[in-house]
Design a protein that fits this description.
The protein is α/β, with parallel strands linked by helices. It is built from four helices and three strands; from the N terminus they run βαβαβαα.
C-alpha cells in the first residue's frame, strides 16, 4: 500500500506572485490541491495557469480581502464604506459578532457562481449538520 499526502495551496488569484508560485509548485509535483479566490481580479488568469494540470481545485471563500462579488450595499456587515471587505483584523478585535450570516451567505453564493463561471465545474460542498448556513444553489 502506498501512502499519499495532499498538499493544498490556497490563495490562487490573490496576486501574480502567488499565482506563479502555485503554478511552479504544481508543475514540479509538490502541490496537488488548490483553492481559488474567485473574487480577486486575476482569478480567471490564475485558473488558466493551472487548468491543464491534474489537481483538485476548490473554492477558497474570502470575505476579508479585496472587493466582494456581491453588491456592497447588500452586504454592509462585511464591507467598508469604500466597498472593500472589512479586514480580518477587525473581526478578531471585535468583542461582539459583527457579521450578518445572510449577507455572508449571499457573498459565498456569488463566489461559488463565479467559480463555476471560471472553471466550468461544480463543487461538492459539505457542511456540518449543526450549522445554519444555507445550501448553495447551482443553476
Amino acid at each position: 500500500m502506498t501512502n499519499k499526502i495532499i498538499i493544498r495551496a490556497d490563495d490562487l488569484g490573490y496576486s501574480k506572485a502567488v499565482d506563479y508560485g502555485i503554478y511552479e509548485t504544481i508543475k514540479n509535483g509538490l502541490i496537488n490541491n488548490v483553492g481559488i479566490m474567485t473574487n480577486m481580479p486575476d482569478a480567471e488568469r490564475a485558473f488558466n495557469l493551472i487548468k491543464n494540470f491534474d489537481v483538485c481545485l476548490g473554492l477558497h471563500v474570502n470575505i476579508c480581502t479585496g472587493f466582494p462579488l456581491s453588491n456592497p450595499s447588500k452586504i454592509k456587515s462585511i464591507t467598508t464604506n469604500n466597498g472593500f471587505f472589512i479586514p480580518s483584523k477587525n473581526y478578531r478585535k471585535s468583542k461582539k459578532d459583527i457579521v450578518n450570516l445572510e449577507e455572508v451567505t449571499l457573498e459565498i453564493q456569488a463566489q461559488y457562481d463565479r467559480f463555476i463561471e471560471i472553471t466550468g465545474k461544480n463543487l461538492l460542498i459539505s457542511k456540518d449538520m449543526r450549522s445554519k448556513v444555507k445550501t448553495l444553489k447551482s443553476d
